[in-house]
C-alpha cells in the first residue's frame, strides 16, 4: 500500500483548503456569563480593540462586535457559507429578510449567489453560567454558472443531521454520503448538490486509545482531514499532533490510531471546480473585472439593503432556535 498522506500542514487562521473549498475558520471562544443584554460585562471589554478584536492570546474575542460578540452586517457574492455550530448560539439576519437563531449542533447553509448581506452575532444568552462557543465556517465555491444564482438560506437542524456510530467513532454527516448514510440535501444550487462531485463535510469524533478507518472516496478528488482537537494520532506509522491538517489520497482507506485524548476532526472533500478564482474580501468571482463589478454593485444597491434596525441585529433574549425564511415561513424548534 502506498502512503495515503500527501501533505501535513499546521492549521493557521484561516485553515488552508483545497478546491472546491475556499476558506475555513474555527472559532473556539470561552465566553463568560452574559450581562443580561446578551453581551459580556462592560468591565471585561476594557482594553479590547472593539470592532476588530481577534487577539488569539485571549480566551474569547468580540470579533467586529462592539457590545455583543460577532460579525455585524457584511456582504457576500459568488460562493456559499456552511456554518457548523457545535456549542453556543448564532443569531442570523440578512438582506433577504431571513433570520434565525441556531446552535448546539445546528448547521446553516447559505448560498450568497448574486449577492446578499448578513450578520452573524453570538449572543451570550446565559447570565448564570459561561457561554462557550465552538463554530466552523466553511466557504464552498460556486462554479461560474452558479455565481449569479438567487441567494438561498437553509437550516440543517441538529436533530435531523444523520450521525453514524462505528465502534469508538461517531461521524456527523453534514454533507455527502458516509458509506450508506446520506446527508440532508444541501442548498439547491450548490456544487454539493450534484452527487458526482462527491462533496463531503464530516465532523468525526473518535475515543482515546482506539482506532478508526476513514473510508476511501469513489474517485480522484481533493480530500483533507483537519485534526482540530486532541493530543496525537498516528497514520501509517507517522505521528501527527493536533492543530494540523492532513491532505490524503482519496483512493485509499486511511487507518488512524488515536492517542491518549479523544480526537476531533473535520473532513472536507470534493471534486475540484477547476476554474479561475478571483477573491477580494467577501467576494469570490472568476476575474478581477468581476470583482470590481461586485464592489460597484454593492456600493449602488447594498445587495437589497438592510431591513433590520441595527447592523449587529440580535433576536429577543428569550427566543429559542428558529428560522424565518424570505417567503415568511417560520420554523421554531
TrEMBL record:
Family annotation (CDD domains): cupin_pirin_N
Residue ranges occupied by any Pirin C-terminal domain in the UniProt entry: 202-304
A Pfam family per the record: Pirin
Ranges where the Pirin N-terminal domain occurs: 62-140
Family: Belongs to the pirin family.
Name the UniProt record assigns to this protein: Pirin family protein
Native organism: Flagellimonas pelagia
